[in-house]
Structures are given as structure tokens and as C-alpha cells.
Protein: FAD-binding oxidoreductase
Organism: Allomesorhizobium camelthorni
Amino acid sequence: MAHLRELLGPDGVVDNPDLIDRYNSDPYGGARGGARIVLRPRATQEVAAIVSACAAAGVGIVPRGGGTGFLGGARARYDGSELVLSLERMRKVREIDIDSGTITVEAGCILADVQAAAASKDRLFPLSLGAEGSCHIGGNLATNAGGIQVLRYGNARDLCLGLEVVLPDGSIVDGLRALRKDNSGYDLRNLFIGSEGTLGIITAAVLKLFPVPAQTVCAIVGVLDAGRAVALLHQLQALTDSAASCFEFMPRGAIALAREVVPDLARPFGAHDYDLVLMEVGGSRDNLGETVEAALAGALEDGLANDVVIAASEVQRRSFWRIREAIPEAIGRLGWIITHDVSVPLSRVAGLTAELQTELTSLAPDCRLAIYGHLGDGNLHVSVLPPAGGTADADNTQARELSRLVLSAVVSHRGSISAEHGIGEDKAQWLQQFKSSEELDLMRRLKRALDPLGIMNPRKVLTQLP
């Protein structure tokens, strides 16, 4: 440790209990970590030195980004066998290459800062999510984050061209290539994206940039159910050449919860009680507004939509988005018994939502249900809340039963138990139940090959190694 203190400098080692507290907490009140020491490198070479030292000593390493994860993916043990490695001091924008349409950044860059750096060159980095003011790009890649614009631009994986990674033995893999085509061997980049720091530590990345849309049309639509919302999406994409970037689904039950906490939310359709779809369509065509208006008029005629309001100003647009933002805010403040981030094929969205409404109401009739999310890519957030005025201190048996019901239904609809939040520690046991034995075996073999000592983010994703 003396060597690492000398290497990292006085600001590179945190062991004061008062200062270390924030590295042991999750943003939504989950179980706390027990790290006694946090290391804060400034450069990739320092990360490599830390990993080499930990490998020699048999000390576990818990990589940490902005601390915005939901599932205990950056949680260290209490017994002192693991330390936290924070990338927060690695915030350099190494290069912006306009001709190649790329930006190269270090893993500790805050997502909003990457967006701002791109905007300074009149370019768009489209990864966008609620925690963008504090989450790190390294964590976004480690969890393959999604957000609100996956429909048009893809997940974090789709936005990345190259990575720099420190392996569990301390060696550095420099794959920072800004290539759209590269078939020179195995796709190592995608091995680390979504691995949640269990195979290596992402220290830098080459990311894609896009032209900024010349104009964006925002609309909110009242629909009767999820099935009509899916049909509306297909019709909109067909008539706008797949120009929709956001397509958010907000059922009336989730909106009612949001109004409990934020009562002054906009009411676009007055007293009418609809499920809502919030959409944005961007592009450079001169008649984009007219095209979207025609598409929505057709949806009204076809019975896919009951009412439509197109935002006439940025103020009105923000009032629409405030409804969407208030839903997770309300769930966090009211407290949940369980909450899950899942995905299913679009063809299964309506069936899954109807099944969950019926089955969860039967199992927990006094509880309240919120299903909402990024409908454009089949990503739904499912939360069960206690009765109005109740507390979220449900016993573990009820929480397990509710979770098993939700996840079993998702898998029966050919879906995934994790869409964009990852697995972490909290969902690792569910992964063992719902991932096939063949897939789990392959994952364990990869883990054992790259991290034979098991020091990289122990207990995350995989609960045990053979």
C-alpha cells in the first residue's frame, strides 16, 4: 500500500471513514458496501499498477464509476478483502475527430460532459439517461446502458468503436481504434462492454458522434393500451423513415403515482384518462413537422390514438418530459417492494403488460403497480409499490414471490431479466435461475480464462465459479 500511496499521491487514496462513506452507498437506498479504502488513479498506467498489486496480494477490486447503479454492482465486502477503484479522476477528452465522427474519452468522464464536448463541435453524442449529470461513460459501457434514444441510435455498445482495458493481470489492451469495419479476429471490445467490470477495467473509449438533427418534433399521444401504442410506433416509423428517436410509454397507473408526488404535472388532455406515449422525431427534411402531423392524424383516424398534442414550444416540450421524469422520481420517493428493468420483443409487450397486471394484482391485491419505459426498444420498468400510505418494508418472501412472478413472465415471453441496468450483485441469483446452463457455463469459462484469481468485481453477475 505504501507503494500505491506514493504512486497515486495524497488525493489518490481515501481511507478516512467520513470521506469513504459516499463510495459505499447506492443512490436508491440499497444495501451498503463496506470498503475501507478507495484508490483514485489519474491514468491508465496507474490503474494497471493497482491491478497488478492486487493480483499479487489476492485483493479483490471493485471498479466504481459515478455511483448511479441500481443493483449493487459497485459494492465491496465489509471484511476488508476488497477495495474500491474509482475512475473519477480520469476525465480527459483525449480527442475529437470530426472527419471520423468520433470522440475519445477516459472512463471517468461524466456522460453530460461527453455530450457537451460533442455539442461544442456541433455534433451529437446520443446516449441520454436520467443520471447523465453524474454517471460515468466507463460505467455506461460496463453496463451497456440504454436510455431514451436507443430506438434510433442504439445502446452504449452500439455507440462504441474501441476500448482501452486493463486486464486482471495488470496488462493494458489498447483497442482505441476509430474503425467502422474491423474483422481482424475476435470481437474483444464487446466482450468487455456489459461485463460490469468482472473481466477487466475499461479506462478509455472511442465513441461515435452524429450530426445534430436540424429540427425535432415532440408530441404526446393518448392511447387506450400498450397494444395500440406498439401499432402507433410501427405506423410512425413507416411514415417518417424510422426517424423517431424516443418513444416512451406511460400507463395511466404510473402517471397517477407520479401525480401523488408532483401534483402540478401537465394534463395534456384535461380530464381524459389515457395511457400516454411521449415521442420525438428528428431530422433535416423541410417538411418533418407536416410528416409527423400527417402520421398522427392517420393514427387518430385508424383508432390507434385517442388524442394528440404536438409541442408548440420548448416550454411545452419540457412539460411533457416532466411527466416521464416524475414517474421514477415518485417510485423512489414512495418506495417499492420490488423493481425490475426488463425487455421483451415488441410483439410481446401488450401480452406481457396485460399478464403482469392480472397476475400481480392477484398475488398482491393491495399493492400498486407501475409499468412504463422505453417502448421503442421493448424495455419496460416494472415496479410493485405498497398500498397508499403503506411502507415498502415487505418481507423477503413476498418480494421473492413477486420478483419470481415478474421474471418468469418476462422469460416466458422470450425476454430478458435485465434490459439496461445490468445484473450486479442483487440480480445475480436470478440470472442463475433464468439463464440457460449452457450460457452460464460459457460465461464462467470466459471469467476463469481472463480472471483466474477471481479478483475483478467479485460476486457480481456470476455468483460462483467452478
In short: The mean pLDDT is 94. The CA atoms of residues 62 and 84 lie 5 Å apart. The chain has four domains: 2-86, 93-211, 215-331, 335-412.
